[in-house]
Amino acid sequence: MEIDTEELYSAFELFGDVNQLILLFGLIISIIGFLAWATNRKGEMRSDWGRRLLFLGISFSILGANFTWFLQAIAYVFS
């Protein structure tokens, strides 16, 4: 069974502006996470929660900035 790469690329063209959405979502989550981490250093549970949100937001920002590369890597794996 051979996968048609043209069909695969045309399916990924629908995600044109998703990279900006993921980038902005990541930036917002990192700001919220940083604020939760920085303001609640005495509360251990809230500090851990803020740190997790911060790193999740940073990873979403990196994914959003490199989303076209990510889609090309997925297309390469499936082809």
Quick structural gist:
The protein has 79 residues and is mainly alpha-helical. Helix content is 81%, strand content 0%.
Protein architecture, described:
It is a single chain. With 79 residues, this protein is mainly α. It has one domain (17-78). The chain has four helices and no strands. It has helices at 5-12, 18-39, 44-65, 67-78.
Instruction: Estimate the strand proportion.
Output: under 5%
Uncertain segments are none
Distance between the termini: 11 Å
* Helix coverage percent: over 70%
List the secondary-structure elements in sequence, H or E: HHHH
Number-wise, the strands total 0
Gross geometry:
elongated
Number of domains: 1
Q: Cα-atom Rg, whole angstroms?
A: 17 Å
Q: Please count the helical segments.
A: 4
Annotate the secondary structure layout.
Elements: H1 5-12, H2 18-39, H3 44-65, H4 67-78
Helix pairs in contact: 2-3
What key attributes describe this structure?
79 residues, mainly alpha, 81% helix, elongated
